[in-house]
Design brief:
The protein contains two helices and eight strands; from the N terminus they run αββββββββα. A hairpin with a 4-residue loop joins strand 2 and strand 3. The N and C termini lie far apart (75 Å). The mean pLDDT is 83.
Amino acid sequence: MAKDHRLLTALLLNIPMVFLFIAVLIAGHYQNEKVKNQSANTFTWKQEAITIRGTVSSDTIMYDAIRDVIYTEKLEGKHTNTNYYNGISTYQGQNAIYYVYTDVQAYIVIKTDGDIYVVNAYSKEETVNLYQKIQEQRNQ
């Protein structure tokens, strides 16, 4: 009887792990498809704000909260070994929220009073266009 109890306990503990493993596989496939289709990051322009949607999270940034916007082609360190990263890492020693295609060596750093965002588009040219559009929207 004790043997059956241990077997049941082992099964009950392992079933959630199997579901977690399957969920991670599905999420990874979803992200890879979005990157392949060049749609991992989407930008929604509103009169007063920009919304950035990645594969994991999204943020809305009010234009009047933006204190600085920097275009750069180099970031310190490597933040991931994958072709896309949407999460928290550091930028110049401070926490930052990343929405980046890691194979694209062009980045926009958006600094607000409370947060730092590092974003890019699926190509260097599109990242330059995105930078220009953010600057235009800020100056309106």
